[in-house]
Every structure is written in structure tokens, then in C-alpha cells.
Design a protein that fits this description.
19 helices, 6-stranded mixed sheet, 495 residues, Nitrilase/N-carbamoyl-D-aminoacid amidohydrolase, single chain
């Protein structure tokens, strides 16, 4: 019960900004997702109860972090809300801990957090003769973490990408929003050409509310802006696509000659952009601000090539909003050869909460995991960028600001074990817990242990006829009727 209540409470705490959208249904969602923490709670109850022994302490130190990894990995499924609330994101500003993401992704940082907390608990509550177990494990974990932070190779690569990030703020009307983005972009050259030259201008998610194929006038304005700034524009369209049968969110790269490439969003926000199992739960849309119509999904990752001012060709890997929270999508772009990851975000739903800052923190982890710099551009929220180690670059535009920020993004990158091997830690954790369960089952069912349990089982005393001594006594009683009728007349010696 405690595990379920904690899991549900954790979900409520992390997603409370959805309350205006989902109303009371958020409590139901939290109750369902809280069930996933039941297995972890049962395991914690089993391994943390007294009496303490060496094997039990080892199990607590190893099994609880492994189980937490599996729970987080399961809850990161996009149909269950996605990896918004991963423990590892909380350590984005701690460089030695953040470096663990390059080795095992956010899962390794989450396991490290759980391990350290278990160590602190055991060191504070166990008897002095057992404390060397958790203390030794904690010291070893910290030493290994520090050793990896020192050993991980530094990013390498020449040059920088000079990026202008446009943040118009909360503008609900699509016409006014487009005009605000265009005016801010034009302000870059109000005082003359930008020096040094720009390599890319990025608008946030849903910055264009019209299909550009159906609005050649808007396309003409965008190509004109690209010509004025001397750099390609990466905008984001949230509109119904004629002939495609629905609404898409699309990143479009264009220059003064027209559209160069585009990418359609693949992972949508549950309830925000589609209602799961709409035939069954579509009625929720009439009672809340959930999506009235499901957005359509893209089908493949896309790399967008651009030429920098230094005549260097680089590959941009775009992701849209919710997708920036998924480690596998960024890892896939890095494997395909992306030099820079560009995330287009709009966080107006949780504008007045700490949500935009946490959203920006996920981008820092994506940079550390992939060894690629990340550009985090928002329509409204927190606009910033990170180098290939996850270190924040330049100034930050917060949730209440609007304007344009130019950031020099180092093109240095590095290959990381996480990009090469992927989610190896959840697989190891699953194997370890499965092996542990099999070992415990076999140990409990061994024949000698079953016999030992049987001999310890209380039951009625054996019949007197079952022992030689009782048989002899019965024979004497048969010869002496007085003993049979009055057994209390036995002699003191016999007693």
C-alpha cells in the first residue's frame, strides 16, 4: 500500500501541471501508474526487514537499484506518459554524476541515486558490526563514478555553430504568433548584417500554425527572412496537411530558395496530442482540455544537412517537444551521424511551474548521453543550449522572456558507450533480478531444506506404541492391572 501510494503521489507531483487539462482524471492516471512501483515496494519490504545478515545487506544494496531501473524503464514507455520523471534528470547540473549518462544513460544515474540512498539508510540503521557493508559499497560507488568522470574522453572537433534562437512567448493566435517570430528574426539584422555570420535560425514548436504548402505567402516571408539573415531557418508547423488526412507537427528547414527538408513528429503526448484508445476513452475529451483530434505520427528519423559559414557541411538531428525526453530517439540520431541535436519545444501548458526548467534539464542529459551538443529552442519556456558534455552554454531565456538569443555551439563531439550499446543496464538489471528470483526459489525448494522444515513443524506427540520404550512400559502395565487403572501409583523412581 505504501509503495502504491508513493508511486501515485510521485506521478501527481511530477505531472501536477496537467491538472487544468485532465482535471480529476489526473488522479486516476496517477493511481494506475503508481501500480508499477508495487513490485519495487514488495522487494524493498523483503530485503530491508530485520534480522540483518551479510547476504541480506548485499541484496538490498544491489537488488533495489536494479529494480528501480526496471520500473523507470517501464514507465518511460510513451503510452504510459514517457520518461518525463526519470530520477537521473535531477542530477543534470552535477558534472561527475551527469557523466554517468555517457556510460549507461539516465538509467545508470537513477541506479546510482537509489544505491546512495540505500547505503545512507543502512549505514544509519544497522548494527555497528554490519555497517561496513553499506559504507564500503557507497565508497566504491563514489570512487567508480569519479573515476569514470575523469576517464571519459573529452569532446573533439573543430569549429562552432552560430545559432539564433527565437522565443516570442505565449501567443495563442497563430497569425500573431507568426508575426511575432518574424519580427524577432528581422530584428537580428535591424542594425546591419550579423557579425560573425549566423549558421542557423531556430523557431520553437508550433511557431507556424498553417500548412506552408497551402500558404505560399507565408513561405515567401520565411524565405525572405532566410535571405536577410544569411542563414537557413528551422521552423515548426502545427497544422492540418491537405491530402494527408490529419494534423501533423513538422520541423521544416528552408533557406532563401525554399524548403530543404522536413521531419514529422513521431511520439505524441498522451491526452495532449492524442487520446489513448480513443474509441474507449474519447469521452474524456468532452470533459477536459485533452486533444479533440489525434495528431498524425511521422515514420522515420531525419537528418538535415546545412552548410556553415565556414563552408563545413554538418548534419542536424531534429526532435520535437515530447521527443526530447526519450533517450533512444537522440541516441538513434547520433548513430545516424548527427553532429548537433536540435529540439523545438513549446511549454505553455506548464508555463508557470518548474516544468520548463525540468524540460530543459532533459536536454542536458541527452547531450551527455550522446556526446553531441544540443540546441533547446522554445516557443515559450526555457531557451538555451548545451555542449557535448551537457554543460549549459551562453545566456538563458526564461519563461517570462521574449526575444532572440545568439549562442555559439561548439561542434566538438565524442562517441559514448551509451550510443554504441544502448539500454544495456535495464537488460543487466532484468537478468540479475531474474537470476536472483530463480536462486531464491531453488534454495527454498531444496530437499534438505524441505526436510528441515518438516522436522521443525509442530504437531501432535507420537503415539506411545511407536517407540520401544513405550512398548515395554505398556507390557509392564498389562502385567500389573493396578498400574493400568491407577497410573499415578507409580514409584518415585519410575516417575
Amino acid at each position: 500500500m505504501r509503495g502504491w501510494l508513493w508511486g501515485g503521489g510521485f506521478v501527481l507531483g511530477m505531472y501536477y501541471w496537467l491538472l487544468p487539462n485532465l482535471t480529476v482524471f489526473l488522479v486516476a492516471v496517477a493511481a494506475v501508474l503508481g501500480v508499477l512501483w508495487l513490485a519495487w515496494a514488495v522487494l524493498a519490504w523483503w530485503v530491508l526487514r530485520e534480522p540483518w545478515t551479510g547476504p541480506r545487506l548485499v541484496l538490498a544494496i544491489t537488488a533495489l537499484p536494479a529494480a528501480a531501473v526496471l520500473v523507470e524503464w517501464a514507465t518511460s514507455w510513451d503510452k504510459l506518459g514517457g520518461p518525463w520523471a526519470l530520477l537521473g534528470t535531477s542530477q543534470w547540473s552535477v558534472p561527475p554524476v551527469r557523466a554517468l549518462a555517457a556510460l549507461g544513460g539516465p538509467w545508470l544515474i537513477g541506479a546510482f541515486i537509489v544505491l546512495i540512498n540505500v547505503v545512507i539508510l543502512l549505514a544509519a540503521t544497522t548494527a555497528p558490526r554490519w555497517r561496513w557493508y553499506p559504507i564500503s559499497a557507497g565508497v566504491l560507488a563514489v570512487v567508480l563514478m569519479g573515476g569514470w568522470a575523469v576517464a571519459v574522453p573529452e569532446p573533439t572537433g573543430p569549429g562552432t555553430l552560430r545559432v539564433a534562437l527565437v522565443q516570442p512567448g505565449v501567443v495563442h493566435d497563430p497569425v500573431t504568433r507568426f508575426d511575432a517570430g518574424a519580427a524577432l528574426t528581422r530584428s537580428l539584422v535591424a542594425a546591419g548584417p550579423v557579425e560573425p555570420p549566423l549558421d542557423l535560425v531556430v523557431w520553437g514548436e508550433s511557431s507556424v500554425g498553417f500548412d506552408l504548402n497551402a500558404r505560399p505567402d507565408l513561405m515567401a516571408r520565411l524565405t525572405e527572412l532566410s535571405g536577410l539573415t544569411g542563414a537557413p531557418l528551422l521552423v515548426n508547423v502545427d497544422a492540418r496537411r491537405p491530402g494527408a488526412g490529419g494534423i501533423y507537427k513538422t520541423s521544416i528547414l528552408l533557406d532563401q530558395t525554399g524548403q530543404l527538408s522536413h521531419y514529422d513528429k513521431r511520439r505524441l503526448v498522451p491526452f495532449g496530442e492524442y487520446i489513448p484508445m480513443r474509441r474507449l476513452f474519447g469521452w474524456i475529451g468532452a470533459l477536459t482540455e485533452a486533444a479533440g483530434e489525434d495528431r498524425r505520427r511521422g515514420h522515420a528519423a531525419v537528418l538535415m544537412p546545412i552548410e556553415t559559414a565556414g563552408d563545413r557541411r554538418i548534419e542536424i538531428g531534429p526532435l520535437i517537444s515530447f521527443e526530447s525526453a526519450f533517450p533512444d530517439l537522440s541516441r538513434d540520431l547520433a548513430r545516424r551521424g548527427a553532429d548537433v541535436l536540435v529540439f523545438q519545444i513549446a511549454t505553455s501548458t506548464f508555463q508557470d511551474s518548474w516544468g520548463p526548467w525540468r524540460n530543459a534539464a532533459t536536454s542536458a542529459l541527452r547531450a551527455a548521453e550522446t556526446g553531441r551538443p544540443v540546441v533547446h529552442s522554445t516557443l515559450t519556456g526555457v531557451t538555451t543550449a548545451y555542449d557535448a558534455t551537457g554543460r549549459r552554454l551562453g545566456a538563458v531565456m526564461g519563461t517570462s522572456e521574449r526575444g532572440v538569443e545568439i549562442i555559439n555551439v561548439p561542434l566538438a563531439s565524442r562517441d559514448t558507450p551509451y550510443v554504441r550499446y544502448g539500454d544495456w543496464l535495464p537488460a543487466v538489471a532484468a537478468g540479475y533480478l531474474l537470476g536472483l528470483a530463480m536462486a531464491v526459489t531453488l534454495w527454498r525448494t531444496r530437499p534438505d531444506r524441505a526436510l528441515s522444515r518438516a522436522t521443525r513443524t509442530p504437531g501432535p506427540p507420537l503415539s506411545a506404541s511407536h517407540t520401544p520404550e513405550s512398548s515395554a512400559q505398556q507390557e509392564r502395565n498389562d502385567l500389573d492391572p493396578s498400574r493400568t487403572q491407577y497410573p499415578e501409583r507409580r514409584s518415585d523412581r519410575e516417575r
